[in-house]
Amino acid sequence: MIVQTNTIKQCIACDKSIRGRTDKRFCNDYCRNSYNNQLKAPSNNLVRNINHTLSKNRRILESLIVENEEMSKVKKERLIQQGYRFKYHTHQYINPKGSIYYYCYDYGYLYLEKDWCLIIRAEKE
Ligand SMILES: [Zn+2]
Q: Where residue 69 falls among pLDDT bands split at 50, 70, 90?
């Protein structure tokens, strides 16, 4: 049995004592929001970092295609040198031959033989 008569409830966000219902955990909406946002912070950081990496990948692919061209062949090494992170892409496309295109938004690449990559720009829809 839990005895609650003499318990002074404290707000879990700011430690002020709470009056009112015993099931209250926060003194007000502000404390509830700031507490919940704090809990979410690590995953927000993760999302931000991944978004940043995806944008950087896209920028690298974009920079490797000459303006007005639709594709460009580069060594995989060159992507690595520029800081390309192969782990991250937004989506894939598998063509009828089974080749996999990895996209970062509207730019993508395809592995060719001997460490070459074919960088492509997606057609505008
Ligand atoms: Zn509070």
A: confident
